[in-house]
Amino acid sequence: MNTRLCAESILRVINDYQEALKDFSEEEFCRKPENGRWSYAEIYCHIIQVNMRSLLAVERCIYGKQQQKRDVAPLISRLILYFGQLPPGRIRIPANISAIVKVITKEEAKNDLIKFTGKLNELMPKILKCSPYQRIRHQRLGMLNCNEWIRFIEIYSIYHFKSLQKMKDSKR
């Protein structure tokens, strides 16, 4: 897994998110579907929050806020990171993550995506030098190092972008 390529992929998919924003009116972006699912605004809020929290974990790895551990992620986590896909089926979002999701405006989404991109670009030189033994716990995947966190961000961003595209296509 090449961290630089993962970061470039993340930047491309974030650009895709920004481009997709142009396709929505403000009303359509914020409208909650009748089936109880999240609105586009809530999906954007969720992916931005998860990615920003993941970058905080990356920073903690970089600056050594945790003990260095040689523990590796569980097999299922390593398979997810290797194959670049989350397991099939619907993934249940932890309550603490779901509770902070809110409806945001297109402008807020655009600005938050720009902030995320800037933060990722700022951290990249440090990520490339980070110890592979400096790990921070992910709620589901276990102990991840900087490179694994970047791979997770890539996988998660792509997964949700595909979900957005399916949602958009189904409404047409």
Automatic annotation (TrEMBL):
Pfam families membership: DinB_2
Name this polypeptide is given: DinB family protein
Domain DinB-like as annotated: residue spans: 12-67
